[in-house]
Amino acid sequence: MSTAMLAGSRIQLQQPAGLGGSRLQRAAAPVAAAARLGSVRPAGLQARSTAARRADRSALRVSATASPEAAPVKLSGDDLKEANRKHMRSVFDFDLWKKHRSSSRYLRHIVGLGESRIVSGLMAPLTYVMTLSLAVACYNAAAEAGYLPVFPELKLATNAPFGLTSFALSLLLVFRTNSSYGRWDEARKMWGLIVNRSRDFIRQGLGYIPPEQEELQKMLVRWTVAYSRSLMCHLRPGEDLRVELKDTLKPEELEALLASTHRPNYVVQVLTAIIKTAQLPAAVTNNRDSTGCVPAGAAYRMDENLTVFADVTGGCERILRTPIPLSYTRHTSRFMMIWLTLLPFTLWDSCHWAMLPIAGIVSFLLLGIEEIGVQIEEPFTILPLEVISRTIEGNVWELYRMHSGEALEKEQAELANGQDVQVLNAQDLVALMAPSAVGNTANGTSRKSLVVNYGL
Q1: Claim to verify: residue 301 and residue 415 sit in the same structural domain
Q2: Please, what sign has the CA dihedral across residues 356, 358, 360, 362?
Q3: DSSP letter string, 321-370
């Protein structure tokens, strides 16, 4: 007996031996899992009384009140840096763009330097450079006062290597930052493509899937929303796909998705099956009709969007699993730390105690450039993917509410009752405005009925 473990739960489904069971048995497995999870009550299980449930809730409240609240964990170092990445998911509107362009940004950014995530992320190397600078300054001051012996000083000869290597260091930093930004920009463009293709995919589905297959239209919308959510959870650590989709997919659908290993691929395959099941317009070939080939391409065009979904999934996985060649990152870090370690030894003769703030500022500026490149190298935990997913969800459900078979039924009921039509279907709008091109509306209602209700 082989066992298939449902992702996100501890329930095991016993699979028949041999070839893995019939297709019907495999299709029924998610439903059985949902039943065991509680969405369907097993036979013989009696409902508890209302009084018993109230007693349980009362005991739970007493227990929660008696137990002390857990103290919040104070993060520091790399843990704080990782936790702060979610605060980098900026979504701009008109007011934020106005603030972003404001001339007050210079003062605002300087005043907010203490709260900078770059400063907190660089605290360890900055502390090292400042401690070394302080030690060098104390030694030179003691040596000039005669308390310590004076070692051979390197003055002009020491400055020469800095002038020769600063150009190479700047090239490394520029390459590092530009490469990281290119990865961030590519990831954002791919998610923008998901938004565009999701809208186009639902537009095509609502236009070509007949209104009689209303449940299929609705399923198409649900699983299109599920694609962006599942890809987001696929690219981020710590995300819970069950929580993300519990209000989107039906319980059986959610359990089937969670049982898969590669969730985005499973979603695309379900969308493919929906297209295959839908009664899309048959192929029409007529040499006298120049538009006769348009309906024949419905399934092909919709499948093109799914191909884009698959390409985006692969592109995001490539960015996630392949960093900038590690030799660049390692050599840049080594180069910079050696350079900053030797920097304090060259500043005392010209700056004396002023070398402390100068060394700190130079270190912050150079290390900050490298830190920005490292932070944006992996873009998916700093991009606002949840906001993009909500945008997709809102857009596709709006299309469904206006142009689906359910919307057509609602419109027909409003017309039959003599009510004003609240939302006019796109096909009906064409029939209303171009009566010579279309006889009746999409739901069979005459143009006269729409004219009367709209007062035209």
Answers
A1: no
A2: negative
A3: H--S-HHHHHHHHHHHHHHHHHTHHHHHHHHGGGHHHHHHHHHHHHHHHH
Q: Position of tokens 């857009």?
A: 395
How many domains are there within the chain? 2
pLDDT tens per residue across span 196-255: 999 999 999 998 998 889 999 999 999 999 999 999 999 999 999 999 999 999 999 999
Are 397 and 438 found together in one domain? no
Domain assignment present for 16: no
Range of the domain at 417: 404-454
Report the range out of 277-291, 361-375, 433-447 with the highest average pLDDT. 361-375
Residue 261 lies in a domain: yes
CA dihedral over 127, 130, 136, 137, signed as positive or negative: negative
Is 319 a domain residue? yes
Q: How far apart are CA 193 and CA 310, in angstroms?
A: 12
Residues 318 and 413 in one domain: no
Question: Residues 397, 435: one domain?
Answer: no
Residue 306 resides in a domain:
yes
* H or E segment to which residue 29 belongs: helix 23-37
- CA-to-CA distance for 94 and 75, rounded, in angstroms? 34
Segment 143-149 shows an average pLDDT of 83
What φ, ψ does residue 240 adopt, rounded to 5°?
-110, 105
Poorest-confidence range of 41-50, 91-100, 257-266, 272-281? 41-50
Structure token digits, residue 378: 């992996």
238 and 218 co-located in one domain: yes
Give 382's contacts (C-beta < 8 A, 6+ positions apart).
Answer: 85, 86, 88, 89, 184, 375, 376
Q: Are residues 283 and 252 in the same domain?
A: yes
What is the C-alpha separation between 344 and 376, in angstroms, rounded?
Answer: 30
